[in-house]
């Protein structure tokens, strides 16, 4: 059994308008998303901004009101608040935020910030609590003198590590990492990502890794889901997604990864333009009449794509031939 | 579970005392120290603080030694006595009552009402604004309609009516009557900042850490809008001195046998007093000006202390 199972998750925001301010339409931020996360793995959730990945992540932590669908954890649906309370859900599921500065309360000292989940979920004595905070700081590579400082006294990378320390404080089973390194520069990105990997090895944590940076996702994730306009368009292992992409949206995302090899600049440019050409000409093949993604169909045991059955098979065969 | 952390960190219980000490050496100074260093950096504000504190202490303690009913008795021999004489330091009014003594007791009454009014109305307004802004949705809607209703009532008229229908009132009941009407401005101000503040990630992080709503409101959001609260409280304290004074001036504040700054300034109603007997009203007017100015200086320092980017003190 998987650690957490997300089934047909929908988050819709109402649009109110008119004289009586009635609900006239809704924004379908997340529109029927299903996937499972296994214990100890890193699951990547990729998509452009506005595709609903952060909303999905927040729903899994319980910060977002879910319109319909279920998130099963230990046999209970945690989209209901009473089930979250019963399970002490946030003891097991924590979150790392994108903006490291705004996610740390500027008026609290680091000790109080990291100890917050401990105070809520574990009754530790004052000394035990301080010891645990010191250990956590040590694990994320900060010195003990950080204890009584305020968040604004740290650099971006250090702050994000404080965020990581807070997330692992209760030794959770799953951490939702919502673009944890997007706001950091490249050298610090690597530092924080390696910390996250190290902590995962040591504590056996699963991550739901939300990102739009496919390079980072490749470094971190075993399984990847691609999200577009609130729906999943492709699910697969790292190999499936990077080497055998089927959906045009995945191909476009992959083509958008910047390439630093100057010698083959023209070739990359040509391949990017080719993908864009296919997208423009065959859009109707990949999306239905309303411009929405199709339901997912299984291509191989690990690989699923949101296309009509026959198109998916045909594309898979083509992809296979190219590989062979 | 604890073993899990023991394994992956080389810090154990033995290091606790040493590391705590190290951390304390590097600790950021406390808020009280920062405020004090701000005062030291700003001489006018320091003077203002000394004026306010010593003046309030002086009138609070001084008023205890004055027998008010006896002081308020009419003494025909002291009719508009000149100031700076042995019996009447600041002269006497038309009933021959000592202006200096009235000033002490009157300041005690007026400042007491202003403090009480600020504490009650600001506390209520802050709670109202925080709860309304944090919970949003239907709760916010309901609370804001109550606010709108209260705003719609003509405040001064209502107070005058209430004062006339309550038979025996004193400074305590007057404070409560004022408090019914003076929380609104604060509550709207606090609500608007709370609306913005509760969207921030640290609130989401607290929710994800399992912190309760009330703790988030009062321990997470409130400290973050403290600079706004402090400025609002100091300004409304200065304003509240004016509220009581204004109503007493019109004759609807404290009863005539209870002196206040307002009743003393009301002496200026008479053109004769303005031109010839200036000592009956001028000391009270000057006192209000000096107090309000000093309070706003202190408020500025508190605001600077709450905002690290504006600080002038040596500790940062």
From TrEMBL, chain A:
Domain ABC transporter: 4-254
Alphabetized UniProt keyword annotations: ATP-binding, Nucleotide-binding, Peptide transport, Protein transport, Transport
Source species, domain of life: Bacteria
GO molecular function: ATP binding; ATP hydrolysis activity
Keyword Transport: yes
Keyword Cell membrane: no
An example Gene Ontology biological process: transmembrane transport
Similarity field: Belongs to the ABC transporter superfamily.
Annotated protein name in UniProt: ABC-type oligopeptide transport system, ATPase component
Organism of derivation: Levilactobacillus hammesii DSM 16381
UniProtKB/TrEMBL annotation, chain B:
Record carries keyword ATP-binding: no
Cell compartment(s), UniProt: Cell membrane
PROSITE patterns from the UniProt entry: ABC_TM1
Any single biological process term in GO: transmembrane transport
Keywords annotated in UniProt: Cell membrane, Membrane, Transmembrane, Transmembrane helix, Transport
Membrane topology listed for this record: Multi-pass membrane protein
Transmembrane segment boundaries: 45-66, 111-135, 155-183
All residue ranges annotated as the ABC transmembrane type-1 domain in the record: 107-299
GO-annotated cellular components: plasma membrane
Predominant location category: membrane
Listed CDD domains: TM_PBP2
Family recorded in the similarity comment: Belongs to the binding-protein-dependent transport system permease family.
Protein name listed in UniProt: ABC-type dipeptide oligopeptide nickel transport system, permease component
